Each structure stands twice: as C-alpha cells, then as structure tokens.
C-alpha cells in the first residue's frame, strides 16, 4: 500500500499527526495540507497568503441538521505574480510535501530549480506565462501517481501552449494581458540605441525617442538635441 492510499484511509488521523508533530512546517495552511494528503495540486496563492497574514484560510462550512457541508476555502488574499513570490511559495509547499512524502524531496528540489532557471532565462514580461506553465504542470502531475515533476519531456505540450508566443493559451491569462499592456507603456531602450530588431507595432515596448518623446527616431538620431 502506498503512502497516498494510506493517508486517505484515515485523512483525519493524518491531519492530526501534522497538527501535533513538532517537526511539521509551521504556518502552512490547513486547506493545502489536505491537498497534499489527497494527492492534489497545492494552491501557491494560498501558501503565499499564509506567509503574510495572521488569519487562517480554513474551509468555510456549516451544518444542515446532522449533516456537515463544506463551502470551500475563502479566496486567497495574495496571488503569485513574480518569480520571487513563486520561489517563496514553492519552497514552502515543497517542504510541506516532503514532510509527508520524504521520498519526493529530491524530485521537488529539482523541479523548483527547473522553474527558477526558466524565470532566469525569460524576460520579466514572460514570467506570468511561466507561472501559468507551472500551475498546469502541477495540475498534470497532481500527487505523482503516474508522472513525476522531473519528467520534463511530458510537459512539452504545456510549454508549447502556454509559454511559446504562438501557443494557443499564451495570452489567455488575465495577468499576461495586464503585463503586456503595462510593458507597452514603457519606452524601448534598444530602439533608442539602434539595436532593436523588432518592427514598429510588433515590439512590446514603445518605439519613441527618450529625448523628445516623438516617434520615428531614437535618442541617438534625435534632431531636437
């Protein structure tokens, strides 16, 4: 019998063990412990929120006569939007996961390094796509029943759809669109240095002179100096 099956035979017992263990990671949201024990992907937004707030994200519930009902978990107070926030949340999630599944520790460490290398290789404007890519991977892998986080070749279709500029889901995320419009309000430094290889209208940044603010020329060739 695997650990996942063992924990799910007595979920409340596993949760009690976590609560009473002196070595369990502190401050990790209880709702996400349940995801770990069930072999479901952890919500890094809830993990990040728990690091900066004193309130817990306990599941909302109630009772109808003698029947307990769950209304789900409250929305996270914070969302992962940057590479540093992702790393912080991931390392806490990995620590919690490896506490219950010690044999996955190296796998989780290697995966964290893989995503962090992707962040380092991409422009800041593409980091939201990397975050979406990670979310898709973690949903795909879940509890590692069939695929491991280190089986990177199995995620090629997700990378192509989410991270690649021509991917079908590349611009589907609201944060991606926000980032793109935000970048469009910034002036292209390469254009002003005559090194930008992207045509006007296709560059993520404005082809505008930093000196006079007009279009059609960069700072190096500005006639208004």
Q: How many separate domains make up the residues?
A: 2
Question: Termini distance?
Answer: 76 Å
Q: Over all CA atoms, what is the radius of gyration?
A: 23 Å
Strand count, sense and closure of the main sheet? 2 strands, antiparallel
* Alpha plus pi helix count: 10
Q: How many strand units?
A: 2
Helix content: 40-55%
Domain CCHC-type: 209-224
GO molecular function, one term: zinc ion binding
InterPro entries: Znf_CCHC
Organism: Gymnopilus junonius (Spectacular rustgill mushroom)
Structure summary:
With 225 residues, the protein is mainly α. It contains ten helices and two strands.
Kindly describe this structure.
With 225 residues, this protein is mostly helical. The protein folds into two domains: 3-50 and 79-162, no CATH class; 186-221, no CATH class. It is built from ten helices and two strands; from the N terminus they run ααααββαααααα. It has helices at 3-9, 11-20, 30-38, 44-52, 83-100, 105-121, 127-141, 156-162, 174-184, 189-192, and strands spanning 59-64, 67-73. It has a two-stranded antiparallel sheet. A hairpin with a 2-residue loop joins β1 and β2. α5 (83-100) runs antiparallel to α6. The longest helix is centred in the middle third of the chain and has 18 residues, at 83-100. GO terms for molecular function: nucleic acid binding; zinc ion binding.
């Amino acid at each position: 019998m695997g650990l996942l099956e063992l924990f799910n035979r007595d979920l409340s017992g596993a949760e009690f063990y976590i609560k009473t263990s002196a070595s369990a990671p502190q401050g990790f949201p209880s709702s996400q412990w349940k995801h770990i024990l069930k072999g479901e992907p952890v919500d890094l937004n809830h993990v990040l929120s728990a690091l900066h707030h004193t309130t817990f994200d306990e599941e909302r519930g109630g009772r109808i006569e003698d029947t307990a009902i769950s209304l789900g978990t409250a929305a996270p107070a914070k969302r992962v939007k940057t590479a540093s926030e992702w790393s912080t949340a991931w390392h806490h999630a990995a620590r919690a996961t490896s506490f219950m599944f010690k044999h996955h520790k190296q796998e989780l460490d290697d995966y964290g390094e893989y995503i962090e290398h992707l962040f380092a290789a991409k422009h800041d404007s593409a980091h939201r796509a990397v975050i979406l890519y990670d979310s898709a991977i973690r949903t795909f892998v879940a509890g590692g029943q069939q695929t491991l986080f280190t089986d990177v070749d199995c995620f090629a279709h997700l990378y192509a759809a989410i991270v690649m500029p021509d991917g079908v889901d590349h611009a589907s995320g609201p944060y991606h669109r926000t980032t793109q419009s935000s970048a469009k309000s910034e002036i292209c430094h390469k254009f002003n240095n005559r090194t930008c290889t992207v045509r006007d209208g296709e560059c993520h940044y404005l082809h505008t002179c930093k000196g006079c603010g007009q279009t059609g020329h960069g700072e190096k060739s500005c006639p208004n100096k």
